[in-house]
Amino acid sequence: MSIRVRAIMSTIGALLLLPVLFGPRAGGIARADAAGDVVEAVPTPVYLAPGKLLEAPVRAWHLRYRSTSATGAADIVSGTLLVPRSAYAAGKRPIVGYAVGTHGLGDECAPSAAMARGTEAELAIISLMLLKGWAVAVTDYEGLGTPGDHTYMVGASQGHAVLDSIRAAMRVPEAGLSDGAPVVVMGYSQGGSSAAWAAQLQPSYAPELRLKGVAAGGVPADLQAVGEHLDGTSDFGLAAAAGAGLDAAYPELSLDRHLTPEGAALFADARDDCVADLRDKLAGRRLAELTTTDVMHRPEWQARLLENRLGTTTPRVPLFLYHAKGDEIIPYGVGRTLREEYCSGGAKVLWTGLPAGSHVLGAVEGAPLAVAWLASRVLGLPVVSNC
C-alpha cells in the first residue's frame, strides 16, 4: 500500500472516530461517557401559566445527561436547568437538585414537558429558590421523558438522577456554574424519597459535590408499608405505579407473569398515564383482585422492597425532614420511623410534624420552612438537630 493511500485511509479512520470520541454536538455541548456528563443542552422557555402566556424570567436549558440505573447500568436521563438572570458572585451561585413529586409514568408527564407547557405546579416552590438567586436542576427521572419505562419509586435510580442533574448543571458552560458551588437537595413525596436517596448515596456516588444539606418531606420511606396502606383506597393507583416502576427496574420481578387478564390490561394502560389518570382509573382497587399470587410477599419482591427501604444507611449531611400529621397517602408513622432510624445512626436531623390535614397541604406548608432551612445551610449557620 502506498504512503498516499495509507495517509488517506488514516484520515478517513480518524474522521470516523470523531463521533465515537466526541459525539453529536447540540447547544455546544459534546457527548461524553461519565455519569453527569451532558449529552445535550438546548435553551428552552419555561412558562408559569398554561397557554404560554407568562414566561419565567430565567435562563433555562432542557438537558439530557448521563446517569446510572438501579442495577448499575449506564443510562440517559432528561431534566431542566433554571438559572436566575440576577447577578451572583462568580463561582458562588448555589445549586439545588430539586426532585419533583409524583407526575405519572408517561413521557408527557415529565416536569420538563410541564414547564414548557406552563402546567408545572411545583414551579411555585422552585420559584422560592430562584428568587434567592440559586440555580435549580430539576430531573425528570429515569424513563420519564426518555426511552424506556419510568422506574417510579426505585431509590437508587432516583437518587442517581438527582445527583447527576447537579453534575450536569455544572457542565453547561453557558450557565456559568462552578463545580465548587455549594449544593443542596430538596423534594417532597416521590421527590422526598429521591432527595433522601441522594443524601444516602452521595458519599459513595458523588463525593465531589459540596452537599450542604437535604430537605425531604412526605417521604414514602417504606414502600411495602405504604403499598399496604393504599390498597383498596382512592390512591391505590400510586401503589400500582410503584409496582410497575419496580418491575421496570428489576427484570427478575416479572410482574406480568402474576397478573390476571384484567390486571394485565390495567397495568399496560397505566404505562403512559399521568398521576390524575392513575388515581382515577385504579381508585378503590386491590392488588389481590389484579394478581394471581401474593406478589409483594414473593422472595424476589421482598428482596427488592427491602433494598428500596430508606433508613438502612445514615446520610452524612444534615437533614430537614417534614411530614403532615394528617397525611392520607404516606402514613405519618412512616416518616417518623425514618427520622428515628436516621437519628439512631448518628445523623443530624431537624424533624417537623406539620399540622396539615392532607398530603398535598403538607407540601404547601412545608416548602417555605424547607427553603429557609436550606438557606441556613448555604450560609453555613450552625446545624440544629432535635433527634
Characterize this entry briefly.
The chain is of the alpha/beta class and 387 residues long.
Give your account of this protein's structure:
The protein contains 13 helices and 9 strands. The protein is 40% helix and 17% strand. It has 3 domains: 27 residues; 255 residues, Rossmann fold, CATH 3.40.50; 84 residues, 434 Repressor (Amino-terminal Domain) (Orthogonal Bundle), CATH 1.10.260. The relative contact order is 0.12. A hairpin with a 5-residue loop joins strand 2 and strand 3. It is globular and about 60 Å long. The chain is α/β, with parallel strands linked by helices and 387 residues long. The N terminus is likely disordered.
CATH topology of the largest domain: the name is Rossmann fold
Q: How much helical structure, as a percent, in the residues?
A: 25-40%
Q: What is the overall pLDDT average?
A: 92
- Which consecutive residue ranges, at least 5 long each, have pLDDT under 50? 1-31
- Terminal residue distance: 76 Å
Strands, count: 9
Q: Name the CATH class of the largest domain.
A: Alpha Beta
Overall number of structural domains: 3
> How many whole angstroms does the radius of gyration measure?
22 Å
Largest sheet: 9 strands, mixed
**Oligomeric state of the chains?**
single chain
Number of helices: 13
The CATH architecture category of the largest domain equals 3-Layer(aba) Sandwich
Strand order in the sheet with the most strands: 1-2-3-5-4-6-7-8-9
Secondary structure blueprint with pairings:
Blueprint: H1 3-22, E1 38-43, E2 58-68, E3 74-84, E4 95-99, H2 111-117, H3 123-130, E5 135-139, H4 155-170, E6 182-188, H5 190-205, E7 210-217, H6 223-230, H7 236-249, H8 261-270, H9 275-282, H10 287-290, H11 299-307, E8 319-324, H12 332-344, E9 349-354, H13 359-378
Parallel strand pairs: 4-5, 4-6, 6-7, 7-8, 8-9
Antiparallel strand pairs: 1-2, 2-3, 3-5
Helix pairs in contact: 4-5, 6-7, 7-9
